[in-house]
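Incident review: delayed structure delivery

Summary: a single-chain prediction request sat in the queue longer than the usual turnaround. Root cause was a stuck worker, restarted by the on-call engineer. No data loss occurred. The affected request and its eventual output are reproduced below so the record is complete for anyone auditing the incident later.

Affected input:
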Amino acid sequence: MDIETFEKEIAICKELSKKNGNKCNWGECVKCGVIPLLYKLGKGEFIEANEDVEKLKLTILK
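Output delivered after worker restart:
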């Protein structure tokens, strides 16, 4: 995934999270796997440990 697409998709997650109270049409942000998946596709890094996934979500959604 190119960086432009990655940033666009992350921006959608941020917008929906803020707009809908940490929820979107796919579910609740705390249970969601979209951000780690986008990170893997966009940055080439697989984040697997639960605490690392939570840190990533907090960093991206703030």
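Verification: Helices lie at 3-19, 34-43, 50-61.
Action items: add queue-age alerting; document worker restart procedure.
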